[in-house]
Write a structure and sequence with these properties.
- The chain is built from 13 helices and 7 strands.
- By secondary structure, it is of the alpha/beta class.
- It has 3 domains: 105 residues, 2-Layer Sandwich (Nucleotidyltransferase, domain 5), CATH 3.30.420.40; 63 residues; 100 residues, no CATH class.
- The protein has a 5-stranded mixed beta sheet. A two-stranded antiparallel sheet has the order 6-7.
- It starts with a strand and ends in a 9-residue tail after the last helix.
């Protein structure tokens, strides 16, 4: 009989439930607790282990389980909560959450994720840190608009300068890390050959979207959340919407898409054609993002650089 495991992770501990037995065990979220959990799972040899992202508290557990060759999937928490509601399970405790996650794993069986080596994990951490610095820069810039006091304005300018120095440092570390990883360096160079894709966007894609070049166009669009979703019922034909997928990645691809709309001839022509058909600018931009991702996906799959004739 197939065995599925759900793990609900918090800062100081995590609960493990097994489906179909639904036995729940608690472990401390520290090296000793993770090792205890690992020994149990190695004996159990489950078909799949599912957990939710918890702001980084899950990473040590995921790393140790994947290093031991166990199949692990980190699934969007919203999907699991909607699954729980569909099952009529509205109560919420740590033990119940672990049981719900285990049932979700057994019912929907999401694909296990590839284990990341230390270099790739370091790269993801650097990219995440860069994103945090960008958010801090935006916040401080917004504060400057309302800084009527001279001392406050000086303080904000000092913080902005410190953020800029840290951003330059992190950018250099990202570039150095890519240079030490031949496969990523080659992929980044291929992506940078596309008009509108710079070093920052290329490093974002090779670290945050490693599936690029491995999936088909529909799968990659759904993964990022730019695939149109039908809303039809009977004779009703609802408006097609996009959503789901990797929301933060999609948000960070918005500005690069605008650059591509202006400077990439293929994307520009596609965007203008949609506007001429009466599409709104936002709909056209999201469609342009999907088109751009499709082109990048094909390039990496075929191991090619930019060629507008093939786009």
């Amino acid at each position: 009989m197939a065995t599925y495991v759900g793990i609900d992770i918090a800062k100081h501990g995590f609960d493990l439930a097994v489906e179909p037995k639904q036995k729940v065990q608690h472990f401390d979220n520290d090296p000793e607790g993770i090792q205890r959990c690992l020994k149990i799972l190695q004996q159990l040899q489950p078909d799949l282990i599912v957990m939710e992202p918890t702001g980084g508290y899950e990473r040590p557990v995921v790393t140790q389980l994947q290093a031991a060759g166990l199949p692990v999937a980190v699934v969007n928490a919203r999907r699991i909560r909607e699954f729980a509601r569909a099952c009529g399970l509205l109560a919420k405790t740590d033990k119940l959450d672990a049981q719900i996650i285990a049932r979700f794993a057994a019912t929907l069986q999401p694909p296990a994720q590839e284990a990341l080596d230390q270099q790739t994990q370091a790269m993801k951490a650097l990219v995440a840190r860069r994103h945090q610095l960008v958010q801090m820069q935006v916040a401080e810039t917004n504060h400057m608009e309302h800084a009527h006091d001279k001392a406050v304005a000086q303080s904000i300018r000092a913080v902005l300068k410190a953020i800029e120095r840290q951003m330059d440092k992190v950018e250099q570390q990202i570039h150095d890390q890519i240079d030490r990883m031949p496969e990523l360096r080659q992929k980044a160079q291929q992506l940078e050959s596309v008009p509108g894709i710079g070093e920052t966007t290329a490093s974002l894609l090779v670290t945050e979207l490693p599936e690029l070049g491995r999936l088909n166009r529909r799968q990659i669009a759904a993964l990022v959340g730019v695939a149109p979703i039908n809303r039809d019922s009977g004779t009703y034909r609802g408006k097609r919407m996009t959503g789901g997928g990797r929301r933060q990645l999609r948000a960070r691809l918005f500005m690069p898409t605008l650059v591509a709309v202006r400077h990439n001839p293929v994307i520009h022509a596609f965007y203008q054609r949609l506007l001429n058909q009466g599409k709104t600018k936002m709909v056209a931009v999201i469609a342009a993002m999907r088109k751009l991702l499709t082109i990048l996906n094909i390039m990496l799959k075929k191991n090619e650089t930019w060629n507008p004739k093939n786009a």
